Amino acid sequence: MVHEPAMARLPRFVLPDYPQHVIQRGNNAQRILFDEADYWFLWEHLGTGAKKFSCDIHAYVLMPNHFHLLITPHSEKGLGKLMQYVGRYYVQYFNQRYERTGTLWDGRYRATLLDPHGYFTACARYVEENPVRAGLVKDAAAYDWSSFGAHATGRDDPLVSPQHEYLALGRSARARQAAWKDLFARPMDPTLLERIRASTNKAWVLGDPAFCAEIEAKLNRRATPRARGGDRRSAAYRQAHARHQVQAH
Question: What is the pTM of this model?
Answer without folding.
Answer: 0.86
